[in-house]
What does this fold into?
Amino acid sequence: MPMISKAVCQELQLAARDGPTVRLREVRDVTLEGKVHRVLARSGATWSYSLRAYVFADLYPYGQAAEVIHQIVARQTAVRPDRGMVSCPASIA
It folds into this structure.
């Protein structure tokens, strides 16, 4: 997985995080905004038009997006939140 640039990490650090949502600040650079969008999408966030923010559906309603953003910035790679163990029938496994 490619490394995330310092500019993208800085935008993620400056983003407002509230529960499972992340709101980016107004970015004038469209290219940078696209890169931040790709990192958040690879990490499991989806854009919510009604909230005007990225939402980590895996963390909804009690998870904290701040933890995921901290992991992305620390590792400089997109990380997916741990979903835990998912049970399935033996015939499928």
User: Anything to note?
Assistant: The chain is about 35% helix and 15% strand. The mean pLDDT is 84.
